[in-house]
Design brief:
By secondary structure, the protein is an alpha+beta fold. It contains 16 helices and 17 strands. The chain folds into 2 domains: 251 residues, Bira Bifunctional Protein, Domain 2 (BirA Bifunctional Protein, domain 2); 172 residues. Strand 3 and strand 4 form a beta hairpin. The structure holds adenosine-5'-triphosphate and magnesium ion (MG) (3 copies).
């Protein structure tokens, strides 16, 4: 099956189960202070789960473009290095929104489990012995019960040796500190060869970051509401929220060992390989660079098409960082000294025709923005790399250390436009690191300097520039409401 057919089979299957197929929401989130980018299919239905919006359809399915590069879900460091985490990916999903009283109304664990099994084993024909399922094992400390109901339902279809308990981290989903939550059941596929399987039991590799035993589908059963005092209340209307990684599913069905070997990524990888004159699959370093480029251009293109331009602020800076990361990989490992990434945009637009038409309708604009960004960063990239090399050499010579001084990392950002995570990555490639404490001090000093410089003396009072003109330079690992935003003046 081609990727296109696989996507369509998912949507048609749930349509045949009376689901209403809806379009993907944009990848850029505009009206939610807790989220910058859509990171799961359920985001666009949040108000329904919270009971703050009217339910129009009880059963819904779609493919949602997602981005996981910030906040609670940040997979950026894995991308390209492993072969199954992407920045931008499609999440196929089916939902049930409460209210079993309506015709073709809501459903819960029984139907969700039966249908996910039917789809995977009868429509997609994945051999049953390759599949493992998990259920929530309970958590005594938290007063959470084991999900016996899910276990018993799975037992009708799956051999007990392939039904595994999972902890709160992997198998209990919560929207936040309060609100809807519940146990989940995940489906994992063991794609190893028979020889590999003979060595270790697949069950021990589930949720263990094994590159060939991967999670494909999460089925969340929202049955509780967590109150402010921490206690759990049963929800009057229970919901189902599922998410399946499309690129992972395609890899399983096309019997590949990497998502990048499927027809989702190969056209781009082959184009990059041809233009660089380097074959994919010959060297791990150049392979990673090709994977990163093929991955990152998707994130960049969809974010721009959905209305967020690269900039020095918040979401705009997140996307600029990703773009610069891709440009540096192309420049250093594949010798692309001229702008190149933008040439991938038409390929991508063609690929997503009739799936996400947003890209094709704005193809020229997106390509132009990417080109401009590339031109701008390529002006300082070489000098920045040379500076970085000199500073690393100096710390080796004078301090016998592979730690880049914080001040140098700051200089790289301030003068050459190297985002700190790029400098970190470059230091790591040399087996070193960056003195982050020093970097933060330099950043703070700069902030104070520019604050002082822009303080306007008006006699009886002073006006200090507000953060609106600040440049976003860091983004920590928590959701935006709790994250530490680090600003400096432009
Ligand atoms: P993982 O444990 O592999 O990081 P997850 O548990 O974080 O995945 P969920 O939040 O459960 O993922 O999302 C539902 C599905 O989306 C996953 O089962 C997986 O197939 C897919 N998925 C999650 N993150 C990514 C990603 N970065 N790239 C591609 N697919 C992903
Ligand atoms: Mg994850
Ligand atoms: Mg997981
Ligand atoms: Mg999961």
């Amino acid at each position: 099956m081609t990727a296109k057919e696989i996507r369509q089979a998912f949507l048609s299957f749930f349509e045949s189960k009376q689901h209403h197929v809806v379009p993907s929401a944009p990848i850029v989130v505009k009206n939610d202070p807790t989220l910058m980018f859509t990171n799961a299919g359920m985001n666009q239905f949040k108000d329904l789960f919270l009971g703050e919006a009217a339910i129009k359809y009880s059963r819904v399915a779609d493919t949602q473009r997602c981005l996981r590069v910030s906040g609670k879900h940040n997979d950026l460091e894995e991308v390209g290095i492993d072969t199954y985490h992407h920045t931008m990916f499609e999440m196929l999903g089916n939902w049930s929104f409460g209210d079993p009283a309506r015709p073709a109304g809501g459903y819960f664990k029984k139907e969700a489990i039966a249908w996910s099994w039917e789809l995977l084993t009868e429509v997609y024909k994945i051999p049953k012995d390759k599949l493992y399922v998990t259920y929530f094992e309970g958590d005594e400390k938290e007063g959470l019960e084991k999900d016996q109901e899910a276990y018993d339902l799975w037992k009708q279809y799956v051999d007990e040796s392939h039904i595994l308990p999972g902890n709160k981290k992997d198998n209990f989903w919560e929207m936040g500190d309060t609100g809807p939550c519940g146990p989940c059941s995940e489906i994992h596929v063991d794609c190893r060869t028979d020889e590999e399987k003979a060595l270790i039991d697949g069950a021990t590799l589930v949720n263990a970051d094994h590159p060939q035993v991967i999670e494909i589908w999460n089925n969340v059963f929202m049955q509780f509401n967590r109150l402010k005092n921490g206690s759990l209340q049963s929800l009057p209307a229970k919901h189902v929220d599922t998410g399946m990684g499309f690129e992972r599913l395609v890899r399983v069905l096309q019997e590949k060992t990497s998502n990048y070997d499927t027809d989702v990524f190969q056209p781009m990888i082959q184009f990059i390989a041809e233009k660089s004159g380097i074959k994919y699959g010959t060297d791990e370093k150049t392979d990673i660079a090709m994977r990163v480029m093929a991955d990152h251009i998707r994130a960049i293109s969809f974010v721009i098409a959905d209305g967020q331009l690269p900039s020095n602020n918040k979401a705009g800076y997140v996307i600029r960082r990703i773009l610069r990361r891709a440009v540096r990989y192309a420049y250093t490992f594949l010798d692309f000294k001229e702008p190149f990434l933008n040439q991938l945009v038409p390929l991508l637009a063609e690929q997503f025709k009739a799936v996400f038409d947003e890209l094709i309708s704005q193809q020229d604009f997106v390509q132009k923005v990417v080109l401009e960004e590339e031109v701008s960063f390529l002006k300082t990239l070489e000098q920045g790399i040379n500076y970085f090399e000199r500073q690393m050499l100096a710390s080796k010579m004078w301090a016998d250390s592979s730690v880049l001084e914080g001040g140098s990392a700051f200089f790289l950002q301030d003068t050459y436009g190297f985002p700190i995570d790029l400098t970190n990555l470059m230091a790591m490639e040399k087996g070193g690191s960056v003195d982050m404490a020093g970097f933060n001090i330099a950043l703070e000093e700069q902030k104070n300097r520019s604050r002082a410089a822009t303080t306007i003396d008006t006699g009886d009072w002073v006006v200090v520039n507000t953060d609106e003109q600040s440049e976003f330079v860091g983004y920590d690992d928590l959701e935006i409401e709790t994250e530490i935003l680090k600003y400096r003046k432009v």
